[in-house]
UniProtKB/TrEMBL annotation:
Coiled-coil segments on the chain, per record: none
Full protein name: Serpin domain-containing protein
Organism per entry: Haemaphysalis longicornis (Bush tick)
SUPFAM superfamilies listed in its UniProt record: Serpins (SSF56574)
Signal peptide: 1-17
InterPro entries linked to this entry: Serpin_dom, Serpin_sf, Serpin_sf_1
Source species taxonomy: Eukaryota, Metazoa, Ecdysozoa, Arthropoda, Chelicerata
Domain of life of the native organism: Eukaryota
GO MF annotations in UniProt: serine-type endopeptidase inhibitor activity
Length: 94
């Protein structure tokens, strides 16, 4: 009985972490599209180049150390709250 319970607990943890990974990826994609909308004008004189992954990683490091209002603002800007990633540990583990 105990081995079955352990297998079930591990499987449940893997399913939840996969869902968090998918949600975090969607949040990063939304951030990338929003950044592109702000950086690119309708008739840009030059090409626009930026790295959404680098920006998300940099803000993610700031989020890891933020508390209070700063944490809430970064979570909102990074799209965590929009995708239900409101627990810091879930975000950092994903």
């Amino acid at each position: 009985m105990l081995p079955r319970l352990v297998v079930f607990a591990v499987a449940a943890a893997l399913v939840n972490s996969e869902n968090d990974d998918v949600l975090l990826a969607r949040a990063h994609n939304t951030l990338a599209v929003n950044l592109l909308k702000h950086l690119a004008s309708p008739n840009p004189p030059e090409n626009v180049f930026f790295s959404p992954t680098s920006i998300a990683a940099a803000f993610g490091m700031a989020y890891a150390g933020a508390r209070g209002v700063s944490e809430d603002e970064l979570a909102s800007a990074l799209g965590h709250t929009a995708f239900g990633l409101t627990e810091r540990t879930r975000v950092l583990e994903a």
